[in-house]
Amino acid sequence: MFGYSWGPILIILVIVLLLFGPKRLPELGESIGKAIKSFKKAHDDPESLTQNPEGGTTGAASETRKNLCPHCRQELGGDFAFCPHCGHNLKSV
Fold first, then answer.
1. Chain mean position to CA 85
2. pTM of the model as a whole
């Protein structure tokens, strides 16, 4: 699999489990999945990210809510489980 044997892959998975913990792994996977989905959508439909003549954006980019992280007060562009700026858990709020 990708030129690696099962030994190094198992070691990498154990390290990831130790770094993020078993409770955060599903949320991390969900966030990665949403990011991949949005990248694919932007790749397939680049016009959704272009600007209209009034200076604003069109498509999905203009429909996102402007949330603020309660911990670092940074603007969030979408529905995240964790703040991309400070890592604060947003689902427990």
1. 11
2. 0.41
